[in-house]
Amino acid sequence: MIEHIWAGWRATFVTGEKMADDGCVLCTIGEVNDLDESLVVCRGEFAYVVLNLYPYTSGHLMVVPRRHIAAIGEVELNEGEEMLRYVRIAVATLEDRLGAQGINVGMNLGRPAGAGIADHIHVHVVPRWTGDANFMSTAASTRVLPEALPDTLAKLRSAWPSG
To answer: Which of 13, 60, 92, 137 is the most buried (most CB within 10 A)?
Structure first.
């Protein structure tokens, strides 16, 4: 008998539907006051850290400049410094709180490079574990996450240094 795993929350992503019709979704997330609803871990002066709503693995974070920036060459020094500081904190926090054995850090610049939101750059920080890639992604187009996003958010936010 074949088991089915429901991942209906991924439908918007899989079908390519827009998440927000009122402009850039990353700009919107960066300004939402309810940090739990927006899945924001930390918000700084120039950047913020948010859980990816469509994660590759549990704890998949994005470090996003608050200013709408479409190209890496547009990043100003203060923005880049804060973003890199957040990437460093994200790596340490994912290792400490989620026990990540490895981390992928990267940017998809432009739609041909895999950017789902090509008009607002962001850095992906993806925790990895030995054996975390399994048949579900290829056989069922589904990712199995062992933890709900709000639970992961609480773990990461509680460990995140303030400021």
So the answer is: 60
Looking at the structure of the chain, the number of domains it has is 1
- Domain CATH for 116: 3.30.428.10
Q: How many CB atoms are located within 10 Å of the residue 124 CB?
A: 19
Q: What pTM does this model have?
A: 0.75
Q: What is the pLDDT of residue 148?
A: 78
Catalytic residues: 122
Reported as a single tens digit per residue, the pLDDT across 15-54 is 445 444 558 989 988 888 777 778 999 999 999 999 998 8
Quick one: tokens of 154?
Answer: 């609480």
Residue 161 within a domain: no
Q: Is 103 left (phi over 0), alpha (psi -120 to 50) or beta?
A: beta
Q: Do the bridges between strand 47-51 and strand 40-43 make them parallel or antiparallel, or are there none, so unpaired?
A: antiparallel
Torsions phi, psi of 113, nearest 5?
Answer: -90, 0
